[in-house]
Amino acid sequence: MRIALAGAGRIGARHAAALARSPHVTELIIADADPRRAAALADHLRPDRSPPARIRAAAGVDELFDAGADGFVVAAATDAHAALVERAVAHGIPVFCEKPLAPDVHGTLQIVRAARAARVPVQVGFQRRFDAGYQAARDAVASGRLGWLHTVRSCGFDPAPPPAGYVPTSGGLFRDCLIHDLDSVRYVTGREVVRVVAAGANRGDAFFRECGDVDTGAALLVLDDGTLGLIAATRYNAAGYDVRLEVFGSKDSVVAGLDERTPLTPLPEEGRRGPAYSGFLERFAAAYDAELAAFVQVAAGDRANPCPPEEALEAFYLAEACDLSRREGRAVEIEEVRR
Protein backbone atom coordinates (compact mmCIF):
# COMPACT_ATOMS: atom_id res chain seq x y z
CA MET A 1 0.00 0.00 0.00
CA ARG A 2 1.06 3.56 -0.65
CA ILE A 3 0.53 5.89 2.33
CA ALA A 4 0.87 9.67 2.31
CA LEU A 5 1.64 11.47 5.57
CA ALA A 6 1.27 15.20 6.20
CA GLY A 7 3.28 16.51 9.14
CA ALA A 8 6.82 15.58 10.16
CA GLY A 9 6.78 16.93 13.70
CA ARG A 10 6.80 14.91 16.91
CA ILE A 11 3.60 12.91 16.38
CA GLY A 12 4.11 12.77 12.61
CA ALA A 13 7.54 11.24 13.08
CA ARG A 14 6.04 8.69 15.48
CA HIS A 15 3.37 7.71 12.98
CA ALA A 16 5.85 7.62 10.10
CA ALA A 17 8.05 5.18 12.02
CA ALA A 18 5.09 2.89 12.68
CA LEU A 19 4.04 2.97 9.04
CA ALA A 20 7.60 2.35 7.89
CA ARG A 21 7.66 -0.85 9.96
CA SER A 22 4.36 -2.11 8.57
CA PRO A 23 4.75 -5.10 6.22
CA HIS A 24 1.70 -3.83 4.33
CA VAL A 25 3.13 -0.39 3.48
CA THR A 26 5.20 -0.53 0.32
CA GLU A 27 5.65 3.22 -0.10
CA LEU A 28 5.54 6.09 2.37
CA ILE A 29 5.48 9.68 1.12
CA ILE A 30 6.10 12.38 3.74
CA ALA A 31 5.35 16.09 3.44
CA ASP A 32 5.60 18.99 5.86
CA ALA A 33 5.16 22.76 5.82
CA ASP A 34 8.96 22.74 6.10
CA PRO A 35 10.25 20.52 3.23
CA ARG A 36 13.62 20.16 4.95
CA ARG A 37 12.01 18.54 7.97
CA ALA A 38 10.15 16.06 5.74
CA ALA A 39 13.38 15.21 3.92
CA ALA A 40 15.25 14.72 7.19
CA LEU A 41 12.58 12.37 8.51
CA ALA A 42 12.58 10.32 5.31
CA ASP A 43 16.38 10.04 5.44
CA HIS A 44 16.20 8.98 9.09
CA LEU A 45 13.66 6.22 8.43
CA ARG A 46 15.23 4.57 5.41
CA PRO A 47 17.98 2.63 7.24
CA ASP A 48 15.44 1.16 9.67
CA ARG A 49 13.23 -0.44 7.06
CA SER A 50 13.78 -4.12 6.29
CA PRO A 51 12.98 -5.18 3.67
CA PRO A 52 13.54 -1.70 2.27
CA ALA A 53 10.44 0.12 1.11
CA ARG A 54 10.36 3.31 -0.80
CA ILE A 55 10.31 6.16 1.71
CA ARG A 56 10.54 9.60 0.22
CA ALA A 57 9.80 13.22 0.96
CA ALA A 58 7.44 15.30 -1.14
CA ALA A 59 8.22 18.88 -2.07
CA GLY A 60 5.04 20.01 -0.35
CA VAL A 61 1.69 18.85 1.02
CA ASP A 62 -0.06 19.54 -2.31
CA GLU A 63 2.06 16.84 -3.95
CA LEU A 64 0.57 14.20 -1.63
CA PHE A 65 -2.81 14.48 -3.36
CA ASP A 66 -1.28 13.55 -6.70
CA ALA A 67 0.74 10.61 -5.37
CA GLY A 68 -1.93 7.96 -5.92
CA ALA A 69 -2.06 7.22 -2.20
CA ASP A 70 -4.18 4.41 -0.77
CA GLY A 71 -4.34 6.16 2.60
CA PHE A 72 -3.66 9.62 3.97
CA VAL A 73 -2.36 10.32 7.51
CA VAL A 74 -2.85 13.82 8.91
CA ALA A 75 -0.39 14.71 11.65
CA ALA A 76 0.16 18.34 10.71
CA ALA A 77 -0.48 21.39 12.88
CA THR A 78 -3.95 21.40 14.43
CA ASP A 79 -5.20 24.36 12.39
CA ALA A 80 -4.44 22.45 9.18
CA HIS A 81 -6.38 19.27 10.04
CA ALA A 82 -9.82 20.16 8.69
CA ALA A 83 -8.65 21.38 5.29
CA LEU A 84 -6.38 18.37 4.76
CA VAL A 85 -9.06 15.88 5.76
CA GLU A 86 -11.63 17.48 3.48
CA ARG A 87 -9.21 17.49 0.55
CA ALA A 88 -8.33 13.83 1.08
CA VAL A 89 -12.01 12.89 1.32
CA ALA A 90 -12.73 14.84 -1.88
CA HIS A 91 -10.00 12.79 -3.58
CA GLY A 92 -11.59 9.57 -2.30
CA ILE A 93 -8.60 8.70 -0.09
CA PRO A 94 -9.20 7.03 3.32
CA VAL A 95 -7.91 9.29 6.11
CA PHE A 96 -6.39 8.90 9.54
CA CYS A 97 -6.37 12.21 11.43
CA GLU A 98 -4.99 13.12 14.81
CA LYS A 99 -7.56 14.79 17.01
CA PRO A 100 -9.06 17.28 16.65
CA LEU A 101 -10.58 16.93 13.20
CA ALA A 102 -11.41 20.64 13.34
CA PRO A 103 -11.08 23.46 15.88
CA ASP A 104 -14.80 23.67 16.59
CA VAL A 105 -18.11 21.80 16.38
CA HIS A 106 -19.08 23.44 13.09
CA GLY A 107 -15.89 22.28 11.37
CA THR A 108 -16.22 18.79 12.81
CA LEU A 109 -19.80 18.57 11.54
CA GLN A 110 -18.62 19.58 8.07
CA ILE A 111 -16.16 16.70 8.01
CA VAL A 112 -18.77 14.24 9.27
CA ARG A 113 -21.07 15.27 6.44
CA ALA A 114 -18.32 15.24 3.80
CA ALA A 115 -17.14 11.76 4.82
CA ARG A 116 -20.69 10.42 4.75
CA ALA A 117 -21.43 11.95 1.36
CA ALA A 118 -18.22 10.63 -0.18
CA ARG A 119 -18.43 7.27 1.64
CA VAL A 120 -14.76 7.61 2.51
CA PRO A 121 -13.56 6.33 5.92
CA VAL A 122 -12.04 8.90 8.27
CA GLN A 123 -10.42 7.41 11.37
CA VAL A 124 -9.78 9.74 14.32
CA GLY A 125 -6.71 9.36 16.51
CA PHE A 126 -8.07 8.60 19.96
CA GLN A 127 -5.20 6.29 20.84
CA ARG A 128 -6.53 5.22 24.25
CA ARG A 129 -9.09 3.08 22.40
CA PHE A 130 -6.15 0.94 21.25
CA ASP A 131 -4.47 0.59 24.64
CA ALA A 132 -4.64 -2.97 26.00
CA GLY A 133 -5.80 -1.80 29.43
CA TYR A 134 -8.64 0.34 28.11
CA GLN A 135 -9.75 -2.44 25.79
CA ALA A 136 -9.73 -4.91 28.67
CA ALA A 137 -11.78 -2.49 30.79
CA ARG A 138 -14.32 -2.17 27.98
CA ASP A 139 -14.50 -5.96 27.70
CA ALA A 140 -14.99 -6.30 31.47
CA VAL A 141 -17.92 -3.87 31.36
CA ALA A 142 -19.52 -5.53 28.33
CA SER A 143 -19.19 -9.01 29.82
CA GLY A 144 -21.18 -8.08 32.93
CA ARG A 145 -18.28 -9.05 35.18
CA LEU A 146 -18.48 -5.72 37.03
CA GLY A 147 -22.24 -5.85 37.51
CA TRP A 148 -23.99 -2.52 37.11
CA LEU A 149 -21.67 0.47 37.11
CA HIS A 150 -21.85 3.24 39.66
CA THR A 151 -18.61 5.22 39.16
CA VAL A 152 -15.99 5.80 36.47
CA ARG A 153 -12.88 7.86 37.23
CA SER A 154 -10.40 9.07 34.63
CA CYS A 155 -7.34 11.29 34.90
CA GLY A 156 -4.79 12.76 32.53
CA PHE A 157 -1.89 14.49 34.28
CA ASP A 158 0.99 15.96 32.25
CA PRO A 159 4.43 16.32 33.84
CA ALA A 160 4.91 19.89 32.58
CA PRO A 161 2.94 22.50 30.64
CA PRO A 162 3.29 22.99 26.88
CA PRO A 163 5.06 26.05 25.45
CA ALA A 164 3.14 29.29 25.95
CA GLY A 165 2.72 29.67 22.18
CA TYR A 166 0.79 26.40 21.97
CA VAL A 167 -2.02 27.38 24.33
CA PRO A 168 -3.86 30.07 22.29
CA THR A 169 -4.60 27.61 19.47
CA SER A 170 -4.98 24.46 21.60
CA GLY A 171 -8.71 24.84 22.18
CA GLY A 172 -8.21 24.85 25.93
CA LEU A 173 -7.72 22.13 28.52
CA PHE A 174 -11.11 20.46 28.07
CA ARG A 175 -10.88 20.26 24.25
CA ASP A 176 -7.15 19.52 24.13
CA CYS A 177 -6.59 17.12 27.05
CA LEU A 178 -9.80 16.10 28.77
CA ILE A 179 -11.41 15.23 25.44
CA HIS A 180 -9.43 11.97 25.63
CA ASP A 181 -10.96 11.18 29.02
CA LEU A 182 -14.42 12.07 27.74
CA ASP A 183 -14.01 9.77 24.77
CA SER A 184 -12.63 7.01 26.99
CA VAL A 185 -15.63 7.13 29.32
CA ARG A 186 -17.98 6.69 26.35
CA TYR A 187 -15.79 3.99 24.79
CA VAL A 188 -15.35 1.88 27.92
CA THR A 189 -18.89 2.14 29.33
CA GLY A 190 -20.79 2.12 26.03
CA ARG A 191 -23.03 4.83 27.50
CA GLU A 192 -23.73 8.47 26.64
CA VAL A 193 -23.17 11.47 28.89
CA VAL A 194 -26.28 13.60 29.41
CA ARG A 195 -25.11 16.30 31.86
CA VAL A 196 -21.83 17.80 33.10
CA VAL A 197 -20.65 20.08 35.89
CA ALA A 198 -17.09 21.33 35.43
CA ALA A 199 -14.59 23.63 37.12
CA GLY A 200 -11.09 24.87 36.42
CA ALA A 201 -8.19 26.48 38.26
CA ASN A 202 -5.00 28.38 37.52
CA ARG A 203 -2.17 27.77 39.97
CA GLY A 204 0.75 27.86 37.56
CA ASP A 205 1.98 30.06 34.71
CA ALA A 206 0.00 33.18 33.89
CA PHE A 207 -0.25 32.47 30.14
CA PHE A 208 -3.13 30.01 30.67
CA ARG A 209 -5.21 32.66 32.41
CA GLU A 210 -4.24 35.26 29.83
CA CYS A 211 -5.65 32.99 27.11
CA GLY A 212 -8.88 32.39 29.02
CA ASP A 213 -7.79 28.82 29.72
CA VAL A 214 -7.07 26.83 32.89
CA ASP A 215 -4.10 24.66 33.82
CA THR A 216 -6.18 22.24 35.91
CA GLY A 217 -9.72 21.07 35.31
CA ALA A 218 -12.25 18.54 36.53
CA ALA A 219 -15.80 17.51 35.70
CA LEU A 220 -18.62 15.42 37.07
CA LEU A 221 -20.43 13.49 34.34
CA VAL A 222 -23.91 12.02 34.58
CA LEU A 223 -24.37 9.09 32.18
CA ASP A 224 -27.67 8.07 30.65
CA ASP A 225 -28.03 5.05 32.97
CA GLY A 226 -27.25 6.99 36.15
CA THR A 227 -23.55 6.06 36.34
CA LEU A 228 -21.38 8.94 37.57
CA GLY A 229 -18.10 9.86 35.91
CA LEU A 230 -15.28 11.90 37.44
CA ILE A 231 -12.55 13.22 35.15
CA ALA A 232 -9.55 15.43 35.91
CA ALA A 233 -6.52 16.83 34.11
CA THR A 234 -3.62 19.12 34.87
CA ARG A 235 -0.61 20.57 33.10
CA TYR A 236 1.49 20.31 36.29
CA ASN A 237 2.30 16.82 37.60
CA ALA A 238 6.05 16.81 38.09
CA ALA A 239 5.95 13.26 39.48
CA GLY A 240 5.40 12.09 35.88
CA TYR A 241 2.85 11.39 33.18
CA ASP A 242 -0.20 9.76 34.74
CA VAL A 243 -3.21 8.53 32.74
CA ARG A 244 -5.60 6.06 34.39
CA LEU A 245 -9.18 4.89 34.06
CA GLU A 246 -10.96 3.22 37.01
CA VAL A 247 -14.34 1.51 36.61
CA PHE A 248 -16.37 0.54 39.69
CA GLY A 249 -19.36 -1.78 39.57
CA SER A 250 -21.70 -3.55 41.94
CA LYS A 251 -19.69 -6.78 41.64
CA ASP A 252 -16.09 -5.81 40.85
CA SER A 253 -13.80 -2.94 39.90
CA VAL A 254 -10.91 -2.61 37.42
CA VAL A 255 -8.27 -0.05 36.52
CA ALA A 256 -6.36 0.65 33.30
CA GLY A 257 -3.02 2.45 33.46
CA LEU A 258 -1.88 1.34 36.92
CA ASP A 259 1.53 -0.33 36.76
CA GLU A 260 5.03 -0.11 38.20
CA ARG A 261 5.60 3.19 36.36
CA THR A 262 2.49 5.00 37.62
CA PRO A 263 3.80 8.11 39.41
CA LEU A 264 2.07 7.50 42.73
CA THR A 265 3.96 6.87 45.97
CA PRO A 266 2.19 4.49 48.39
CA LEU A 267 2.07 5.59 52.01
CA PRO A 268 3.71 4.73 54.27
CA GLU A 269 6.37 5.56 51.72
CA GLU A 270 8.16 2.58 50.23
CA GLY A 271 9.74 4.25 47.23
CA ARG A 272 8.86 4.45 43.56
CA ARG A 273 8.74 1.07 41.85
CA GLY A 274 10.04 2.32 38.50
CA PRO A 275 10.71 5.48 36.47
CA ALA A 276 7.53 7.36 35.58
CA TYR A 277 6.45 7.67 31.96
CA SER A 278 7.89 10.80 30.38
CA GLY A 279 4.80 11.57 28.32
CA PHE A 280 2.03 10.29 26.08
CA LEU A 281 4.31 9.03 23.30
CA GLU A 282 6.06 6.66 25.72
CA ARG A 283 2.99 5.66 27.72
CA PHE A 284 0.88 4.88 24.65
CA ALA A 285 3.61 3.63 22.31
CA ALA A 286 1.91 0.28 21.68
CA ALA A 287 -1.48 1.97 21.26
CA TYR A 288 -0.12 4.34 18.61
CA ASP A 289 1.28 1.37 16.70
CA ALA A 290 -2.03 -0.46 16.99
CA GLU A 291 -4.16 2.44 15.75
CA LEU A 292 -1.94 2.93 12.68
CA ALA A 293 -2.04 -0.80 11.95
CA ALA A 294 -5.83 -0.59 12.20
CA PHE A 295 -5.88 2.32 9.78
CA VAL A 296 -3.87 0.39 7.21
CA GLN A 297 -6.53 -2.32 7.42
CA VAL A 298 -9.32 0.27 7.14
CA ALA A 299 -7.70 1.84 4.09
CA ALA A 300 -7.36 -1.60 2.51
CA GLY A 301 -11.04 -2.31 3.15
CA ASP A 302 -10.20 -5.20 5.49
CA ARG A 303 -11.90 -3.92 8.66
CA ALA A 304 -14.55 -1.50 9.83
CA ASN A 305 -13.51 1.96 10.96
CA PRO A 306 -12.84 1.70 14.74
CA CYS A 307 -13.15 5.45 15.40
CA PRO A 308 -15.21 7.35 12.79
CA PRO A 309 -15.68 11.15 12.84
CA GLU A 310 -19.06 10.80 14.53
CA GLU A 311 -17.19 9.61 17.64
CA ALA A 312 -14.97 12.70 17.55
CA LEU A 313 -18.07 14.87 17.23
CA GLU A 314 -19.64 13.33 20.34
CA ALA A 315 -16.45 13.85 22.34
CA PHE A 316 -16.30 17.45 21.10
CA TYR A 317 -19.87 18.07 22.28
CA LEU A 318 -18.87 16.87 25.74
CA ALA A 319 -15.75 19.04 25.81
CA GLU A 320 -17.82 22.04 24.71
CA ALA A 321 -20.34 21.37 27.48
CA CYS A 322 -17.58 21.05 30.08
CA ASP A 323 -15.94 24.30 29.05
CA LEU A 324 -19.30 26.09 29.06
CA SER A 325 -19.99 24.73 32.54
CA ARG A 326 -16.55 25.82 33.71
CA ARG A 327 -17.01 29.35 32.37
CA GLU A 328 -20.58 29.85 33.57
CA GLY A 329 -20.40 27.89 36.81
CA ARG A 330 -23.48 25.74 36.24
CA ALA A 331 -24.63 22.31 35.16
CA VAL A 332 -24.92 21.94 31.38
CA GLU A 333 -27.13 19.46 29.55
CA ILE A 334 -25.38 18.01 26.50
CA GLU A 335 -28.40 18.87 24.37
CA GLU A 336 -27.57 22.55 24.95
CA VAL A 337 -24.44 22.28 22.80
CA ARG A 338 -25.61 19.67 20.31
CA ARG A 339 -26.27 21.01 16.82
Automatic annotation (TrEMBL):
<keyword id="KW-0560">Oxidoreductase</keyword>
<feature type="domain" description="Gfo/Idh/MocA-like oxidoreductase N-terminal">
    <location>
        <begin position="1"/>
        <end position="126"/>
    </location>
</feature>
<dbReference type="InterPro" id="IPR000683">
    <property type="entry name" value="Gfo/Idh/MocA-like_OxRdtase_N"/>
</dbReference>
<feature type="domain" description="GFO/IDH/MocA-like oxidoreductase">
    <location>
        <begin position="134"/>
        <end position="254"/>
    </location>
</feature>
<dbReference type="Pfam" id="PF22725">
    <property type="entry name" value="GFO_IDH_MocA_C3"/>
</dbReference>
<dbReference type="InterPro" id="IPR055170">
    <property type="entry name" value="GFO_IDH_MocA-like_dom"/>
</dbReference>
<dbReference type="InterPro" id="IPR036291">
    <property type="entry name" value="NAD(P)-bd_dom_sf"/>
</dbReference>
<comment type="similarity">
    <text>Belongs to the Gfo/Idh/MocA family.</text>
</comment>
<protein>
    <submittedName>
        <fullName>Gfo/Idh/MocA family oxidoreductase</fullName>
    </submittedName>
</protein>
<dbReference type="Pfam" id="PF01408">
    <property type="entry name" value="GFO_IDH_MocA"/>
</dbReference>
